[in-house]
Amino acid sequence: MNFIRRYLIALLLVTIGLTSCAGENTVESTPDVNATIVSEASTLAASYFETQTAMAPPATPTFTSNALFTPTGTALVLPSAFPSPTTQIIYSTPIPPTIGFSPTPTGTQYTPTVDPAKLAVGCNNLRLIRDESIPAGTVFLPNEKFTKTWRVENNGTCDWVYLYHLVLFGGDGMDGKVSNLGKVIPPGKWTQISVNLTSPKNPGTYTGYWKFGDQGGNMFGAVLAVPTNTPKPTSTASVVPPSPLPTLTFTETLTPTPSGTPTATP
Predict the structure, then answer these.
(1) pLDDT in tens, 33-87
(2) Where are the chain's structural domains?
(3) CATH no. for 121-230
(4) Which residues lie across from 149 on neighbouring strands?
(5) Out of 16-30, 124-138, 169-183, which region has the weakest mean confidence (pLDDT)?
(6) CB hemisphere CA count around 195 (13 angstroms)
(7) Closest to 202 in 3D by CA, of 222, 231, 167
(8) Rounded to an integer, what distance in angstroms lies between the CA atom of residue 152 and that of residue 129?
(9) How many other β-carbons are positioned within 10 Å of the β-carbon of residue 255?
(10) How far apart are CA 193 and CA 167, in angstroms?
(11) Over residues 187-194, mean pLDDT
(12) CB-based burial label for 14 (10 Å; 0-12, 13-18, 19+)
């Protein structure tokens, strides 16, 4: 117990001594140099950056692909793609509207003429001059025999010789009988060629097409046509004449008429 009391008294005395020493040695604390330097540097830096911020233009906000934005009422116009080197650009002229009428051609229609030179086969060619007999539209009785003749010119470059003859080219042959030319026709000269025919037995219109040919049957030159017309046969029924009119007989009765003046009897 005494030990504890002594310990507490010693502790109290030490505390009082230290307090008095602290009061005597209390002096104004020296400011921290490092803290002062740091504070001044911070102030200077803040002043510099505020000046630069005032001089710089306001920054434009940049949107990234992930940024959210509010759509406006104006549609976004995308730039058209540039054509590739293989792209073909075609400019078309607008078609005017169709007016409710169509042009009507006038005048005489042109009929192309066959080039005689294109009818040649090798050195052989023939030009039709005219029909010598049986003009177009001639009418024949059924099974009537006739001869068709043409005047033609050798407009080729070699002679027509003896075995040249007519060859059926198309249409109705009408039992045609042909014979060889039997003579020589040099280029630039004309002659007559004929075929013996028989009209068809059935009524109708018929046309035969012939061409001239060499000894081998090779046809050349203009086409020679034979148009014919066979009418319907007339009726052969017997006609009964009407019966003769009856003969009328007239009988005349004569009555005598007195003449002169009668005489009175006394």
Answers:
(1) 556 555 655 665 555 555 555 555 555 555 554 544 455 555 555 555 555 555 5
(2) 121-230
(3) 2.60.40.10
(4) 194
(5) 16-30
(6) 23
(7) 231
(8) 5
(9) 4
(10) 12
(11) 97
(12) exposed
